[in-house]
Backbone:
């Protein structure tokens, strides 16, 4: 009987530990101040979210905001070069009486991009979906240079009627083209261009800087299934031991 009890106890302990230890997916690497992100091949089909604030004439505007969810679709080899593929869901989240249009999104890349501003096609940086153009240049409002922006305008400064208005979400699919075999890269200085702003006397156009905000950790209540399994295993163990005792001679 002692042997049975030992085996059942070991089984119970293993089951409880197995349910309690659930490995979490490791996705992307963010800088300490969350203003840059490193993407590697292991991040395939995973996503991260960037929140953008709002600024008009170098003054922060409460309620002027956007959000972008980046999903990395992996690397593609094109001859001797590499392409990094994304889907980006862009939302204009302006509130508190502020309305606007997010008309461009851009960032810096720690590796040289191929074909920015050139006609699209395999081997060149390009975009499809919400935005039609990839450009290099700078955002206004003292934001500074970006290695690439995605827009419907002819420059990163804006100008067209494209983008997403307050309360709306749309998706675009940028492709970043690099020289040689690339397995990782870092995005930084993420920003958006705002136009058609209303609700502030500062002006009708501005910019926003992007920062990663880590998702809220899951509640400890998630471990309740573990407790239930542990109780069930203990009940089975107790039942078997009880039956074993009943079979023993008095």
Residues:
């Amino acid at each position: 009987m002692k042997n049975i009890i030992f085996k059942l106890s070991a089984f119970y302990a293993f089951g409880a530990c197995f349910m309690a230890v659930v490995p979490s997916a490791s996705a992307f690497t963010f800088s300490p101040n969350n203003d840059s992100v490193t993407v590697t091949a292991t991040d395939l089909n995973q996503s991260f979210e960037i929140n953008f604030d709002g600024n008009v004439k170098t003054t922060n505007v409460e309620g002027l905001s956007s959000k972008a969810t980046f999903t990395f679709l992996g690397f593609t080899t094109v001859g001797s070069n590499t392409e990094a593929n994304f889907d980006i869901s862009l939302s204009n989240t302006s509130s508190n009486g502020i309305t606007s249009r997010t008309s461009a999104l851009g960032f810096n890349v720690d590796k040289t991009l191929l074909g920015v501003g050139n006609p699209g096609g395999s081997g060149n940086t390009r975009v499809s979906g919400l935005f039609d153009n990839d450009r290099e240049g700078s955002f206004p409002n003292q934001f500074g240079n970006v290695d690439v922006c995605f827009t419907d305008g002819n420059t990163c400064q804006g100008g067209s009627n494209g983008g997403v208005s307050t309360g709306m979400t749309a998706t675009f699919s940028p492709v970043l083209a690099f020289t040689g075999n690339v397995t990782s890269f870092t995005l930084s200085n993420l920003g958006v261009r705002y136009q058609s702003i209303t609700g502030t006397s500062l002006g009708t156009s501005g910019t926003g800087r992007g920062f990663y905000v880590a998702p809220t950790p899951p509640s400890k209540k998630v471990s309740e299934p573990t407790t239930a399994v542990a109780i069930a295993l203990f009940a089975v163990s107790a039942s078997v031991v009880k039956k074993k005792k009943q079979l023993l001679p008095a």
In short: The chain is about 15% helix and 40% strand. Residues 191 and 236 are 58 Å apart (CA to CA).
